[in-house]
Amino acid sequence: MFVDPVSIIMIMAPALTPAVVALGYNPVWWGVVFCATLLTSYITPPVGVAIYYLMGVAKDVKTEVLFKGVWPFVAL
To answer: In the chain, N or C: fewer CB atoms in 10 Å?
Structure first.
């Protein structure tokens, strides 16, 4: 949540993937789960890249409203 997605990919993918495969998990499904967690990092503050994209499109909506609207999706 506090690191941008590119940094997460560069740091965590090489570190976790061999361990997950050694535990017997399918690498394809591991990639799906890894991407789903990356999508969560795209919408969570403070980095929240997707929120800043949305601020550029919806100029009449306050930033606080966008940040508050993200939490139900993070909880899911």
So the answer is: C
